Fold this protein.
Amino acid sequence: MKNLKFLALTAFAFAMISCGGDKKTDSVPTADSSAPAATEAPAAEAPAGGDTNAYDPKRGLGKWDASNVDVSKFDAAMADAGKKAAEVKCFSCHKLTDEKLVGPGWKGITSKHEPFWIMNFITNPDPMINVDPELQKQLEICLVRMPNQGLSDTEARDILEFMRQNDGAK
């Protein structure tokens, strides 16, 4: 019976850590940090000293902006690849409807945020959560920080295209 309790406790602890149970409040990487986001966004793009006045809520924080995220044409192949990536990395926390699971539902997300904001957030969630008032409100509702899934640029763009498809892009 002791072994069963130990196993259950260990599994619970692992689940909390792997699903975003780590509630770091600062975005400064530590020596044991393995999050790839530290190299995704140059430090110059983050607000200095937590100055939220420098944060652009339409763009977010990261390398993506209107010059490098082109959504002028819908790409079904990218959307299919994005669905496959989302099935592995996103659907344990998000639904395609507006219903909350662990995180908010995805329905209508592409009409609420600019494509490059979505790309910045899904590739670089922690710095944005730390400064974006809307994301902080969402955190109060969901109670779990979105973990950095270590998405490649291609995966992030494919997931964005899948989100667009979910919202009716054709």
In short: DSSP finds eight helices and no strands in the chain. Residues 2-18 form the longest helix (17 residues). Residues 56-170 form a domain with the Cytochrome Bc1 Complex; Chain D, domain 2 fold (CATH 1.10.760.10).
